[in-house]
Amino acid sequence: MTNTIHKGLLAFVAIAALSSFAFSHDGDPHKEAKASMFTGTETTAAKTVLAFHKALETGDVETARSLLADNVLIFEGQGVERSAKEYASHHMLSDMKYLQAMKIDRIEHHVLQYDGIATSFSRSQMTGMYKGKSIDRTSNETITLINRDSQWKISHIHWSN
Q: Alpha helices of 59-129 — where are they, by DSSP H?
């Protein structure tokens, strides 16, 4: 019986792979996969996340701060910051300097938006020179947002490499 299940599973995988190739756009089997790496990025919550990224990357302290909930919880490396005020007074400026020195290529970004909460999951490739060191790393980011008074605010960030 196990052999029958194994053969059935192999047949299913083969059919799925062929279907994916046959129905891909413009004969490019990778084009659909690439498109599916960015989902939900047209939502209003995603626009808040993108505005936050832009503010950090351009050194716009006021905009970056305005997009954070006052009680935001930020996990970065081994550290934690427990408010927008704490982040703005500690790591925000160094994060901005770092990001301004990097070339950032977005690899993947998914945003799930519900009634009053949204989650953003993204991966980026960062390359450049910072403090005399060559950087080439993939960064992972999870952001949770809450909608209060018809405005999305970032309530949690988790950054890791």
A: 61-66, 84-89, 92-101
Let me know how long the chain is: 161
Q: What is the pLDDT of residue 14?
A: 32
Per-residue pLDDT reduced to its tens digit, 25-45: 445 555 656 669 999 999 999
CA atoms within 13 A on the CB side of 35: 8
Average pLDDT over residues 129-158: 97
For the domain made up of 38-160, the CATH class stated in words is alpha beta
Strand ranges, E, within 48-89: 68-76, 79-81
Q: Which of 36, 38, 34, 33 is nearest to 110 (CA)?
A: 38
d(CA 158, CA 161): 10
